[in-house]
Amino acid sequence: MDAAVRIDTRGALCPMPILELAKAMRALAPGTLVELISTDRGLEADLPAWCEATGNPLVRMERRERLYVGWVRKAG
Prior knowledge:
Blueprint: E1 5-8, H1 16-26, E2 33-38, H2 43-54, E3 58-64, E4 67-73
């Protein structure tokens, strides 16, 4: 995976991980890869839904023990 902007939302519950992602995405250039880290299991459903709704491609989603990690590329 190429270099990414990392957003660490460990300990935050829904909807905060997605809100933090949306806030960060507004300031990024198109094509930027964002790594979102969360302990909220809702991210498994919320992140793909947010990506579909906003047109920002979900590059990958994985689970690492208690962490949910997703990579999103800023559309544009």
